[in-house]
Amino acid sequence: MEKIKWGVLGTAYIFERDMARGMSLAHNCEQVAIAGRSLEKAKEFQEKYGFLRAYGSYQELLEDEEIEAVYIPLPNTMHYEWTIKALQKGKHVLCEKPLAPSAAQAREMFQAAQENHVFLMEAFAYQHSPYIKEIRRVIEEGQIGEVRYAEAALITSDYDHSNIRMRKGTLGGCTYDLGVYALSFLQRMMGTAPANIHALSSISEEGIDTYTTAILEYEHGTKGHIDCGMVLETEKNAALDRFQIHGSRGSVTSVDFGFNMPGTLSYRLRTFQGMDELRKVEVPNNYCLEVEQLGRCIRNGETPYVSAEFSVALAETVDRVLETIGY
């Protein structure tokens, strides 16, 4: 199998914590080059993670003609600029979530991908999980009937205020960082964006939302609800991930679940006819799954599972939530 030759723009923590392992596991990925703000840092990562080359600037990596695809884990404020630059150099792009600060910029990014005949995919690793796909299948098959209500939440530790998540100027706040998980989960399960949104937030002295809750109203009367927040004990890496979906025939609820967790995850399926099952799903490394899927798009013509339509609709929903809370 001919592997996709990858470059990484940035030496971000999410690469170290998650994507480095995912790329090393991906059978169709060759880690060719990494770029950092300093050559010294890039060389450190080159040695640690097995890249063939290191560059002291992002532009140098984009000039490398051997590289076919780039992963962009840069701060949120840099996604738009460097994704556009990579696309214009003819590179396929896997860009971390949230893809862009606004839906307008997200549309421009996908337009640039189309114009340069390359793929752009937002890096929502959990969306590739067989667990998430099974929950979606339960809904599509009507196992709980017509969906009446769904909710999802992701609540994490607070962070030191030097963290870019805690600064408005770097697009911090819990909606950008965490709410996109809950909103994208409901979008996948509902198969559409909400018609109406009502949201309320707790805003910090720095002007970021530290806790946001939203009621989502869909066509035909279905209701949804999301919670997101950075309010648990500071810097303890704690998290609360949950969902439940209720329908006209029953419900499906998370049990052992984390949005990006690998391993054995479980959910409970109950029906009004008396079924009560705890079902388990084996989940491999989600970051590996998204790298492999984009590779198959490039080589085999697959459609990105996190499509342009999905990401733009999500960005529009995020825009509406932020507008509602006055962010």
What is this structure's SSE topology?
Layout: E1 4-9, H1 13-25, E2 29-35, H2 39-49, E3 53-55, H3 58-62, E4 69-72, H4 79-88, E5 92-96, H5 103-115, E6 120-123, H6 130-140, E7 147-157, H7 174-190, E8 196-203, E9 209-217, E10 223-232, E11 239-247, E12 250-254, E13 263-271, E14 276-283, H8 286-300, H9 308-325
Parallel strand pairs: 1-2, 1-4, 2-3, 4-5, 5-6, 7-10
Antiparallel strand pairs: 7-11, 8-9, 9-10, 11-12, 12-13, 13-14
Helix pairs in contact: 1-8, 4-5, 5-9, 7-9
**Tell me, what's the shape?**
globular
How many strands, what sense, and barrel or not for the largest sheet?
8 strands, mixed
DSSP strand content: 25-35%
N-C termini distance: 47 Å
User: Helical residue percent?
Assistant: 25-40%
Mean pLDDT: 97
Key features?
327 residues; alpha/beta; six-stranded parallel sheet
Walk me through what this model shows.
With 327 residues, the chain is of the alpha/beta class. 35% of the residues lie in helices and 30% in strands. The chain has helices spanning 13-25, 39-49, 58-62, 79-88, 103-115, 130-140, 174-190, 286-300, 308-325, and strands at residues 4-9, 29-35, 53-55, 69-72, 92-96, 120-123, 147-157, 196-203, 209-217, 223-232, 239-247, 250-254, 263-271, 276-283. The strands form 2 sheets. The protein has an 8-stranded mixed beta sheet with strand order 8-9-10-7-11-12-13-14, covered by helices on one side. The chain has a 6-stranded parallel beta sheet with strand order 3-2-1-4-5-6, sandwiched between helices. Helix 1 (13-25) crosses helix 8, helix 5 (103-115) runs antiparallel to helix 9 and helix 7 packs across helix 9 (308-325). The radius of gyration is 20 Å and the shape is globular.
